[in-house]
Write a structure and sequence with these properties.
Layout lengths: L24 H13 L3 E5 H10 L15 E4 L11 E4 L2 H8 L6 E3 L3 H9 L5 E6 L19 E9 L5 E9 L9
Parallel strand pairs: 1-2, 1-4, 2-3
Antiparallel strand pairs: 5-7, 6-7
Length: 182
């Protein structure tokens, strides 16, 4: 999931495949915009936020409303920004309080470490996954060994002509097991 947007987006760990989504972007842009435009606030990790706060204020025409929504940023090193509507959170307890409060839905874009933290604390209700027909062999991962086991149900899916699978999964409860073929 590392650096889908461009070659210089995130080269940490020597990652050299930045921009790997570009060959597939036009085909999925209508659905991505539909998802982006649904009313929701954003939860971002500090590294993703550092990239976004320098990009989106000047490019709102590509994502109408991104500057107006509340952006919650999990960070132990930052507590302010000049970008509109930013709220800094310090811990997973702050995220739990936010999740249990009234208000808009909350989306995460990127922010692999935050996603892994949410999975570890069973705080993910729904995924929109874009699965590309590419194996990078390196880079940041979405899922790691710290996730709480959970089952999800496919709610919606789209396959683009180039083979990108856009799948919406909703939490379904405990993982069920059994014996194959019985």
């Amino acid at each position: 999931m590392q650096a889908p947007g461009g070659p210089e987006e995130d080269t940490s760990g020597g990652f050299k495949y930045g921009g790997w989504v570009a060959p597939y972007g036009d085909e999925q842009s209508d659905k991505v915009m539909e998802i982006q435009l649904k009313p929701a606030d954003l939860l971002l990790g500090r590294k993703t936020f550092d990239i976004w706060e320098n990009y989106w204020p000047q490019h709102e025409d590509q994502w109408p409303g991104v500057n107006e929504v509340t952006k919650y940023i999990l960070s132990t090193t930052r507590d302010k920004s000049d970008w509109n509507n930013c709220v800094f959170l310090k811990s997973v307890d702050d995220i739990k309080k936010l999740k249990n409060s009234e208000g808009n839905d909350i989306k995460i874009w990127g922010s692999s470490e935050v996603v892994q933290l949410l999975l570890k604390h069973d705080l993910v209700d729904e995924f929109w996954l874009n699965i590309h027909p590419v194996i990078l062999g390196e880079g940041k991962r979405l899922f790691d060994n710290g996730s709480v086991p959970r089952a999800f149900t496919l709610a919606e899916s789209i396959i683009t002509p180039s083979g990108v699978i856009m799948a919406n999964y909703k939490k379904a409860g405990e993982v069920e097991t059994g014996t194959a073929g019985e």
